[in-house]
Amino acid sequence: MRTTHSGRAALAAALAGCLLLVGCRGPEDDALVLYAGAGLRDAVEAAITEFEKQHETKVVVDWNGSGTILAHAKARNSGDLFMPGDVWYVDELHRQTGLIADKTSVAYFVPVILVHKDSTKNIRSLADFVRADVTVGLGGPEHCQIGRLSTKLLAGNGVDRTALEAMESLTVNDLGVWVDTRKVDAAIVWDATAANYSDSCRAIEIPKDKNIISHVVVGRMTTSQHPDKARQFVAFLASPEGQAILNRHGLRTEAP
Amino acid sequence: MARDRTEHEHPPVAGPRANLLSVLSVGLLGLFVLFILSLIVADVAYLGRRDYPPSEFWRNLTAPEVLAAIRLSVISSLITLGLVILFSVPIGYALSRFAFRGHTLVNTIVDVPIVLPPIITGISLLVLFGSSVGRAIEDGLYSATGWRLASLIGIVMCQFLVSVSYSIRACKASFDSVDRQLEDVAMTLGCSPWGAFWRVAVPLARNGLVAGSVMAWARAVGVFGPIMVFVGTMTHVRVMPTAIWLELSTGRIEVSIAISLVMLLMAAGALAVVHWLAPGRKWT
Amino acid sequence: MLRADRVSLRVGEFDLRDISLEIAPSEYFVLMGPTGSGKSLFVKSICGLMRPDRGYIFIDGQNITDLEPRYRNIGYVPQHCALFPHMTVAKNITFALRLKGIRHATALEQLAALIEPLGLRPLLGRSVTNLSGGERQKVAVARALAVEPKLLVLDEPVSALDEPTRHEVCLELRTLQRSLHIPTIHICHSVVEARLVSDRVGVFVKGRLAQTGDLDTLTAHPANDAVARLLNVSTNHRNPS
């Protein structure tokens, strides 16, 4: 009878499904869980590779936007390390949940102006942002650290942000994409972000005395199951070797 | 009843006669097709920049983590597809055939996930399993089986919730198009209601059921927001949409486009299957 | 052999009330009535496809009111035949026997006595979507008779056919019924049809059974105006009443 044939097929499919379900385990129990901002990926992954070799500890990373990793840390109430691309979120997580045991600054974020290499607009400084023929991208002041800083930065350079009619983004990475795809002529991004677009774009320095420096901070979480290993990882990032790795991948480790 | 020939009893007239209606409608069609094609061409053209040779493209596409994301997407979406079919065929049948109190209300509720932005699904799951009840469930699951929700399970949950309602709708419509009298007659000839379902309703609704399932699968493969919010992007849970986003976050637009083109091919394949299954297809 | 005892059923706008009638073994019983008077609903409840709200149905003395359709052994041919479009003519006819586990080829042999008289042999391999109205009707009847039913129910079997085919098919049905001695309920609108086939007639009006009896008696003494109108409209000659 026909029904047994399709019944058998269904059963086979169910069995196969069950076998595949073996992929339902989470990260290994003795791995360190790091919530990290996606923009830091190149540098942090390189550091992790070296760390894992030296310490025989696996590090599993949940990459996401800073706001989302905050939500993950809160909701899951577990995790070892918290390293958003936006330092504001470390304090915010602690303010909301008290989950940060201690925090360490491991790199600097220095704002730069990003322009496309093929741009003919001849943009040299923040003063060019007010030109009518220049479209500008800025981080949203409520959404990301670069956005918050940009307002002060521009003011310190004699530019009123509100007069610019700039396009606002949710994250600093979006600004990089916009400049790369010529959606905007210029944007203020971190030097580390600019490094991701070095093929097609160019970073213009902002004079040191008129710039505002931010940090990349990694927080050790109170929910850590492996506090010693977590300390080791933070120490590694801050060590000369770790700093060199971060530096190689676009993060500035020396005070500007 | 010759109901399997509904819309295809009137195939389109060959060649438009030039009047206002035909010019306008075919013109809009052409514009739309042009727009879609230009998006795809733009993607490919971006890859064709001077400093991105095809060998680089292939290297990016076959990198272990990209292949892993493709594999996980395929596996998770197929499991989701199985679950979706398991749920939506009987539910679609019930909505089509059975009259019960609150039928209209239930019918409307089934549609809610279709109109809900997927990210709300993700937030709701996050909040649910962050609550004390949810955590108890998750801990119970872990102690019983060693499984966690931030795994294949969570991915399938997100994909399932986003695509099942669509499939239920499609199954209901398929069963609606099958004359109920056929099942009635089958029962008088000795079928149980279950037998009438399997031997009459399902074979006749089959094309619609499969097409609905394939479209639901295509939606499942593309689920992004809920997975980001609920499951995250750790290596063992990376699927194609989240992999695309990750590459975009570090400025590797080429890699994200490369993965996007793979997804595009998969979607095109799915659509080809759906159209091949259209009943009474006579023109191509 | 069939006894309906005050069967009542309400579905949406259709309202059957207190239908009581009896059908003798080997009787050809015609059900007439205007559209919407509940004839189809009534026969569906006899077949088990709808449950009466009140009342009982007996076949050969056995109370079948709550019995599932598949156990009732009633052959049912709905309006428009409801042939299975995903099966050939042959597979339609052998459907019931195949359900019992009999193989298709064997079933065809067993049903030869049904297939030949109806002239269905040349049609066996055909798809059901390409048949003429009369051919569809015969396939549907053969399919229903394959279960050797105790009762045959035909819902407007010839209404969709043209006049000459109608006449021919009615006569064939009558002949078939006579040879099989099978009690039959035949729903129709037309007095001409009723005259061709019926032993007795029942008239439905607005959900109630208005009158039963043989056609001549009804024509001569209609119980009320509605019955009279029904019989008049179809025959086109005045009924002295």
Kindly describe this structure.
- The complex is a heterotrimer of chains A (256), B (284) and C (241).
- Chain A is globular.
- The model of chain A has no long low-confidence stretch (mean pLDDT 87).
- Chain A has 256 residues and is an alpha/beta fold.
- Chain A has helices at 2-20, 41-55, 66-76, 88-97, 145-156, 172-180, 191-196, 227-238, 240-248, and strands at residues 32-37, 59-64, 81-83, 100-109, 111-116, 136-139, 167-169, 186-190, 201-204, 214-221.
- In chain A, strand 1 (32-37), helix 2 (41-55) and strand 2 form a beta-alpha-beta unit.
- In chain A, helix 8 crosses helix 9.
- Chain B is mainly α.
- Chain B has a single domain, classed as MetI-like (MetI-like fold, Orthogonal Bundle).
- Helices cover 75% and strands 0% of the residues of chain B.
- Chain B has twelve helices and no strands.
- In chain B, helix 1 packs across helix 12 and helix 5 crosses helix 6 (132-145).
- Chain B is globular, with a radius of gyration of 23 Å.
- Chain C has 241 residues and is an alpha/beta fold.
- Chain C has a single domain (2-235), classed as P-loop containing nucleotide triphosphate hydrolases (Rossmann fold, 3-Layer(aba) Sandwich), CATH 3.40.50.
- Chain C contains eleven helices and ten strands.
- Chain C has a six-stranded mixed beta sheet, sandwiched between helices. A four-stranded antiparallel beta sheet of chain C has the order 2-1-4-5, with helices on one face.
- Chains in contact: A-B, B-C.
- The interface between A and B is large, with 40 and 38 residues.
Summed up:
With 256 residues, chain A is an alpha/beta fold. Chain A is built from nine helices and ten strands. Chain C has helices spanning 39-47, 69-72, 89-93, 95-99, 104-110, 112-115, 133-145, 163-180, 191-197, 215-220, 225-235; strands at residues 2-11, 14-23, 28-32, 54-59, 62-63, 74-77, 151-155, 184-188, 200-205, 208-213.
Would you state the CATH class of chain C?
A: Alpha Beta
Mean pLDDT of chain A: 87
Helix content of chain C: 25-40%
Instruction: Tell me what portion of residues of chain C adopts beta-strand conformation.
Output: 15-25%
CATH homologous superfamily designation of the largest domain in chain A = Periplasmic binding protein-like II
Distance between the termini of chain C: 33 Å
**CATH hierarchy: architecture of the largest domain in chain A:** 3-Layer(aba) Sandwich
One letter per element, helices H and strands E, the order of chain A comes to: HEHEHEHEEEHEHEHEEHH
Helix tally of chain A equals 9
Count the domains of chain A.
2
- Major sheet attributes of chain A: 5 strands, mixed
CATH structural fold name of the largest domain in chain A: D-Maltodextrin-Binding Protein, domain 2
What's the total count of β strands of chain C? 10
Number of domains of chain C: 1
CATH homologous superfamily assignment of chain C: P-loop containing nucleotide triphosphate hydrolases
Main interface: chain pair and counts: A-B, 40 and 38 residues
Physical arrangement of strands within the biggest beta sheet of chain C: 6-7-8-3-9-10
Q: Over all CA atoms, what is the radius of gyration of chain A?
A: 22 Å
* Largest sheet composition of chain C: 6 strands, mixed
